[in-house]
Amino acid sequence: MTDIFKDFITQLAEVNKQDMNRIMSCITTHEIKKNTIILSQGEVCTRFYFLEKGCMRTYYITKEGQEKTRLVSFDNSPVTALTSFITQKPSVEYIDALEDSELLSISYDDFFILLNEIPSWALFYRKMLELAFAFQNRRIEDLVTLSAKERYEKLLKEQPHYIQRLSNRVVATYLGISQETLSRLKSK
Amino acid sequence: MTDIFKDFITQLAEVNKQDMNRIMSCITTHEIKKNTIILSQGEVCTRFYFLEKGCMRTYYITKEGQEKTRLVSFDNSPVTALTSFITQKPSVEYIDALEDSELLSISYDDFFILLNEIPSWALFYRKMLELAFAFQNRRIEDLVTLSAKERYEKLLKEQPHYIQRLSNRVVATYLGISQETLSRLKSK
DNA sequence: AACCCTTTTTGACTTTTGTCAATGCACAGG
DNA sequence: CCTGTGCATTGACAAAAGTCAAAAAGGGTT
Known about the structure:
Number of helices of chain A: 9
Radius of gyration of chain A: 17 Å
CATH superfamily of the domain at 3-114 in chain A: Jelly Rolls
Distance between the termini of chain A: 43 Å
Oligomer: homodimer
Shape of chain A: globular
Strand content of chain A: 15-25%
Strand order of the largest sheet of chain A: 1-8-3-6
Structural class of chain A: alpha+beta
């Protein structure tokens, strides 16, 4: 059940059995229905989430009321408004489920207790931050260097599951273009 | 001389005198002339840099030959192609000096030796990653939610030194717009 | 002051993308 | 089997931003 998460941790840092049990003792599981919002703008992100199965989205709503997607997460990845989680300040982002999903979570307090208690957890966290940084780095690179059309083509080539599994509307807000523009790009 | 860096570290993590001396023993200083490139696309970033004084820029060159700026760093901030540094793989980014600058640096090997040797250095690194993540998060948010004009106005309001200290050309590549568009936005 | 070199501004035009509105389509719930 | 409701597509037009070229404005050097 929580094996997916164990594997994920182990890929980043070796954890002995005892430590792993300690980590797992802090974990809560959640079944989330499609369209459920697990974090709203203005709320503090008090838990670290990991998505075992399903699909979730981290997004903003602009003052004009438009949804803009920062990140879409699929099975086997962390899903957290990290900035809010780290600082324990209100989030500017929403997180919701695009499909029925299975989540694990750890509270902020436990997360940081583990950090001091278990060196391999600290290593795991550091590696995760490094990966998150690198991912965002590429995202900025794409947004700054590519046109809408090029961003779509790159996504189609490198992450075809985004386009297969998500609605046009969500893909468009992820690419930072309008639904109509995306629809026109697709029909070529 | 290296006091600026010491202060920077101390703000993120408490370091005792002995550890600080150990850290400082790994440090090299550099005087960099304006327009010097310290890292090119395709090179591995083998040192972690910290900018004590001056101004440096991290940027890409697109296949059309256009410069696109990911980040501009002023006095008292880290300046490193972190993704390349962490993975020790070739960088996609260039780093150059926009002004005469004073840098410190630590080699990759020393950096990771310190990480295992000195817990407060590990904490410093973790906090730095957290800050870098949060910064990039905001950058993505701006790129995704704001128009060129709004990005310019936000920069003018929140980081006026960018506009005062940098050439139009650099500001434009940072905002992801053309020089001419920026010039027109300014004249309103 | 005169020169060169770079940066900035301006104008005319093109391309890209967005907006609004209408239509078609598909699926969930009664 | 009908009927909404939301999503996708298409068309016509508008707005935003880019491109190219030329002129103007600075900045430093002799």
